[in-house]
UniProtKB/TrEMBL annotation:
It catalyses: O-phospho-L-seryl-[protein] + H2O = L-seryl-[protein] + phosphate. It is an enzyme of class 3 (hydrolase). Residues 136-299 form the GAF domain. CDD domains: HATPase_RsbW-like. InterPro entries: Bact_Sigma-Reg (IPR052016), GAF (IPR003018), GAF-like_dom_sf (IPR029016), HATPase_C_sf (IPR036890), HATPase_dom (IPR003594), PAS-like_dom_sf (IPR035965), PPM-type-like_dom_sf (IPR036457), PPM-type_phosphatase-like_dom (IPR001932). Primarily acts as an independent SigF regulator that is sensitive to the osmosensory signal, mediating the cross talk of PknD with the SigF regulon. Possesses both phosphatase and kinase activities. The kinase domain functions as a classic anti-sigma factor-like kinase to phosphorylate the anti-anti-sigma factor domain at the canonical regulatory site, and the phosphatase domain antagonizes this activity. Its EC number is 3.1.3.16. It comes from the Bacteria. Keywords: ATP-binding, Hydrolase, Kinase, Magnesium, Manganese, Metal-binding, Nucleotide-binding, Phosphoprotein, Protein phosphatase, Transferase. One of its GO terms (molecular function) is kinase activity. This is protein-serine/threonine phosphatase.
């Protein structure tokens, strides 16, 4: 005898409930116990749910969730109802959830049990329990609709609602466009069924149109009543084989914004309780659609602002490749004060600009747009980078200083402006409180390039912005960005730079385009895996991200493949000596002998300090490493404007100076002092494959 025959003989059926698809599979006995034809069937969750007493369904829902959480059996007693809401039998279910990721399948049995004695819960009137179940249903429906963030999500939630005791087979949401009725969405119909209803005049003799005109619900419990009240449109509805219809107004703030139709394949009398449920759902649906419409309008406004304010990179630069990204992450309308720009200049030169206006709101976005236009105007007039930023600072100060109220409070902006000569690769950079640019060299070495800078724009109306000149060699890539790329995710500038530097070093300049690198940079900070690289700071606030990449194409020449860097240490910035030491260590990150690196850093520090202490000018540092790995030569040169040459001295035991040349003799393989027309330069050289005399035993 088969197992199915044994189970049927003892009035026991099998069922399988797939949570992911919402499909419930029943064998013949389980179908019979649910009041259906005694044959295997696959039904929707809503169809099966309608056969259970609402109170019992709510109870088993909690039991199933507990069984899923604990991995135990789910057991419950359920009352089965017919289409009229009368209890026809009581069954007991025992089932086991099989969990697959976030979904599960519930497999179990249904067994009929003896009727309970009169006066027990199974014999109590269904109506009273239905009213209690209605409250639970409305709470769940309200929560689900409140969480929907788009019109499509609202319609999906509305389609999945299974009302206690009765569930619609077809749903449609109508909207109003001018003097015409349109369909926003529908469920339970085939593709193309909405054609006759999708664009209908409001004066049409159709229930939804009348509901919109009058703001009053229409209930049609029978086809005869539908045909009698709306004979003109009855042929359109007749082909769907429905038995009852409810058309309810969607009202928000006293205005009817549309109508909701719920259609049933079985007769519904629309009792006061049923009408109350439908009316409440219609109100919640109207509120949810209104919220979704506002959210979608805000998103469209945000995208429109971004498209308007963020430029499309201009024509290709001969011999160069450009890529840029902007990601607004500040919240609200998703607009902020970060921006980038590319400006065509006279003579074939190109200007690249990146900046960040303080704030993440609409005012910041508005100021950003004004500042960007001003910068374009000043650049197009032919001003040099320092003059462009000076004028921009005066402009921003003028439009924000002295404004009244919180919304007009003075704001500042950071900015980096650079001019590119595509023919030579020369970059003239002016910086206003912005992060320094970074260079990825042809061999994969990545370094921050310290540049002279001034105050952020808008703080002081008359500010000077010194210009730094760099040369971008073939095969090298320049990165400029806003601080959001570095500090998002709990990072400070130092730890954030370490994260970005790793990505730049891994970039395959030959096999990957600059667009791929731009995507990787953004994904590392704001993509799905970014939570793995959060920084040490407790503050996890996000910030807007703007990044601009410039690469000089072409095969690196042998001579140009050398690592070379330069920076200026001003008299007023002695703290940049530490930056110069760190800069040299980055240049020599893969040098074979770490003791030689320590020696080079010590000599550099001594040379720069001597310039700042014994002259009145600035120090210009130039460092270059050439040759094959393991056989490279490092040449470090520090120049100043003083004609006074250094002298060898014999410092006493307690002297605080006078040991510079002694250190050079002990640590450098070669060194010297070269007079120039105006000033001098002192230099030293180290060779990677040569051991320097006296390196051992020197205290650093």
């Amino acid at each position: 005898m088969r197992t199915e025959d044994v189970l049927a003989a003892i009035a026991t059926g099998l069922w399988r409930w797939d949570n992911a698809s919402g499909i419930v599979s029943l064998d013949a006995e389980a179908a019979r116990l649910l009041g259906l034809p005694a044959e295997p069937a696959e039904l929707s969750e809503a169809a099966v749910r309608s056969r259970f007493h609402p109170v019992d369904w709510n109870e088993i829902d909690g039991v199933v969730n507990l069984a899923v959480a604990e991995g135990t059996l789910a057991e419950a007693r359920l009352r089965i109802m017919d289409e009229s809401g009368r209890v026809i039998r009581t069954v007991r279910t025992r089932s086991k959830p099989f969990i697959e990721g976030t979904d599960y399948q519930l497999v179990g049995t249904l067994q009929e049990v003896a009727e309970t004695q009169p006066g027990t819960a199974a014999r109590t009137p269904v109506t009273g329990d239905w009213r209690r179940s209605r409250e639970a249903f409305l709470l769940d429906a309200g929560r689900a609709l409140a969480e929907a963030r788009s019109t499509a999500e609202v319609l999906r939630v509305a389609a999945s609602l299974s009302m206690p005791g009765f569930s619609p087979d077809g749903l449609a949401v109508f909207g109003v466009s001018g003097d015409r009725l349109t369909i926003i969405g529908h469920h339970g119909h085939n593709a193309g069924d909405d054609g006759p209803f999708s664009d209908m005049p409001l004066d049409t003799d159709y229930p939804a149109a009348e509901v919109v005109r009058t703001g009053r619900a229409i209930y049609l419990p029978t086809p005869e009543e539908y045909r009698t009240r709306f004979p003109a449109t009855w042929p359109l509805a007749q082909r769907f084989d429905r038995e009852s219809w409810a058309f309810l107004p969607l009202i928000v703030a006293g205005r009817t914004m549309g109508a909701w139709m719920a259609a049933f394949t079985y007769p519904v009398s629309f009792t006061p309780d049923e009408r109350s449920v439908l009316t409440t759902v219609a109100r919640m649906l109207a509120q949810a659609l209104a919220r979704a419409g506002v959210a979608e309008s805000e998103r469209e406004l945000s995208l429109g602002l971004q498209r308007t304010m963020m430029p499309v990179l201009g024509p290709a630069i001969p011999g160069m490749e450009v890529a840029a990204r902007y990601v607004p992450t500040g919240g609200g309308l998703q607009v902020g004060g970060d921006w980038y720009d590319m400006i065509q200049l006279p003579g074939g030169r190109i200007a690249l600009v990146i900046g960040d206006v303080q704030g993440h709101d609409v005012r910041a976005a508005g100021l950003m747009g004004q500042l960007r236009i001003a910068l374009r105007a000043y650049a197009s007039e032919g001003h040099r980078p320092d003059a462009v930023l000076s004028r921009a600072s005066r402009f921003l100060y003028g439009i924000t200083d002295g404004a009244e109220g919180d919304h007009g409070a003075a704001r500042f902006a950071t900015c980096l402006y650079l001019e590119v000569d595509p023919a030579s690769g020369t970059l003239d950079i002016a910086r206003a409180g912005h992060p320094d640019p970074a260079i990825r060299m042809a061999d994969g070495t990545v370094m921050l390039r310290p540049t002279a800078g001034g105050l952020p724009l808008g703080i002081v109306p008359d500010t000077d912005y010194p210009t730094t000149r760099l040369t971008l060699e073939p095969g090298e890539t320049l990165m400029i960005c806003t601080d959001g790329l570095l500090e998002t995710g709990g990072h400070d500038l130092e730890t954030g730079w370490s994260r970005i530097r790793t990505l730049l070093e891994r970039h395959d300049a030959e096999g990957e385009s600059l667009e791929v690198l731009a995507d990787n940079l953004v994904q590392a900070v704001h993509g799905p895996g970014s939570h793995y690289t959060t920084g040490p700071l407790a503050d996890r606030r996000e910030d807007d991200i703007a990044v601009l990449l410039l690469s000089r194409t072409g095969e690196p020449l042998r001579a140009a493949a050398a690592r070379r860097t330069a920076m200026t240490i001003a008299q007023a910035e002695p703290e940049r000596i530490a930056a110069a030491r760190r800069h040299l260590r980055e240049l020599l990150h893969d040098w074979a002998d770490p003791e030689q690196v320590d020696s080079a850093v010590l000599m550099l520090s001594e040379m720069v300090t001597n310039v700042l202490v014994h002259t009145d000018g600035d120090a210009l540092l130039v460092a270059e490493a050439t040759g094959d790995h393991g056989k490279r030569r490092l040449r470090v040169e520090v120049a100043d404007a003083s004609d006074e040459l250094p002298h060898r001295r014999r410092p006493g035991e307690m002297a605080s100076s006078g040991r510079g040349l002694i250190l050079m003799e002990m640590l450098a393989h070669e060194w010297g002092v070269d007079p120039r027309g105006e000033g001098k330069s002192i230099w030293f050289e180290l060779f990677e494959d040569r051991d320097g005399e006296g390196l051992q035993g020197v205290a650093f």
